[in-house]
Design goal:
single chain; transmembrane; membrane; 2 domains; binds zinc ion; two-stranded antiparallel sheet; B-box zinc finger; two-stranded antiparallel ribbon
Length: about 160
């Protein structure tokens, strides 16, 4: 297949013919200008943009809010988890609900973008309060499977809510 309509000229070097175009913006680029990325050939402008500069990414301010909220969730979580264990039943269900709520909150302050930062923050923030109760037991030689399972359920719910 060789049609003359397939030949374009590099947008940076108008005299050079090329059949290659940028995977992001579609502008034709010559072999010297093209940049191989793991998502295809790109022009230098688009190759320079970090992955996070596109949809689903957070601004610095949103990242800061996310991390701060995560810290708040971890602190408040100690009280919440303590109450959950005092109730003594529906522990896993309550943990799932609490985790989901925390994940939703973190997802919102991050501008509802989700992504790895929101997910990591909410997962860690939700798991930490459980570890606060689990670690002393582990240090004492016990294996608090009940607490760890509840932590896992809460963390998964949080990840699900903030994805
Ligand atoms: Zn481009
Ligand atoms: Zn060029």
């Amino acid at each position: 297949m060789s049609t003359s309509s397939g030949v374009q000229h590099c947008y940076r070097h108008p005299k050079r013919e090329t059949r290659v175009s940028c995977a992001t913006c579609g502008r034709p680029i010559c072999t010297e200008c093209m940049v191989q990325t793991d998502v295809g050939i790109k022009c230098p402008d688009d190759a320079r943009l970090p992955r996070g500069a596109r949809a689903g990414s957070m601004k610095n301010e949103q990242i800061a809010k996310t991390v701060l909220t995560g810290a708040g969730v971890a602190l408040a979580g100690i009280a919440v988890v303590s109450i959950i264990f005092q109730i003594g039943f529906f522990t896993f269900i309550l943990s799932g609900i609490a985790g989901y709520g925390a994940g939703t909150l973190i997802h919102r302050v991050g501008g509802r973008n989700g992504g790895p930062i929101a997910m990591t923050t909410s997962g860690v923030a939700v798991a930490l309060p459980y570890l606060f109760f689990a670690v002393p037991q582990i240090l004492a030689g016990a294996f608090p499977i009940y607490i760890l399972l509840a932590a896992l359920i809460a963390a998964v719910a949080a990840l699900y809510a903030s994805r």
